[in-house]
Amino acid sequence: MQRAFDQLIHDVCFMDLPILILTVRTGFAGYDNPTHHGIYDFSFLRGLPNLRTMYPKDIHELERMVRGEMRSLEHPTLIAMPYGPGESFDPSVFDESDESFALPEIIESGDDLLLLTVGHKFGAAREARERLCAEGIGTGLVNLRYLKPLPDEALVRIMRSYRRVAVIEEAVLEGGVGSAVAALAMDRELDCRLLRIGVPCVFVEPGSNDELCRAYRLDADGIVSQCKDRWF
After folding, report:
1. Smallest Cα–Cα separation from 161: which of 102, 113, 117?
2. Beta-strand (E) ranges in the chain?
3. 5-90+99-231: what fold?
4. Which end of the chain, N or C, is less packed with Cβ atoms under 10 Å?
5. Is the pTM higher than 0.85?
6. pLDDT per residue over 47-91, tens digit each?
7. For the chain, first and last CA: distance in Å?
């Protein structure tokens, strides 16, 4: 994706071609190489016209997205996938209507805090929510699904119900999904505080994904501690 950036702009997006792209290393890429981590993807893809971007939380959402796009593909579309095997959380996604599936998935509601999770950070975010709730912090959980264009109206409706929102992504913070959500909150003058949980803008060393998530506070422990450090 990095090496094909010129082709992506000129030969895909500018031509507005119905091309479906599946990534294979969005987020950390294990021991492969510091340059193989896909933590910069959203920052350099967000500004490309005509390119739609989505990130499923598990293999069932992935299959639903791929099947849906292959039935009606009209524009350049990218579906992000993490390094390694996907997780299996919710096969009932196939029972959702197309209208419902196009919106952020509201998993749980809460009174104190919303965790807005991106792609395969869902498992860690769900565990973090359980721990926060066990400590008396009412925490909601929403699976974003569609990253570009953001489902603005649905997100605004959800975020208006919360005073605190944390966006969790395995990507660099500069220009990432959290930045897009922050811009939306500013543009719509939402009265909520935001916390972006992600990776600093650095070259990340090789390591197992579990090790890297611990090191960069993107596991459940790190998510809980960052939320509590900021607000509780």
Report:
1. 113
2. 20-22, 52-54, 77-79, 105-108, 113-117, 139-143, 146-148, 164-172, 193-199
3. Rossmann fold (3.40.50)
4. C
5. yes
6. 999 999 999 999 999 999 999 999 999 999 999 999 988 899 999
7. 40
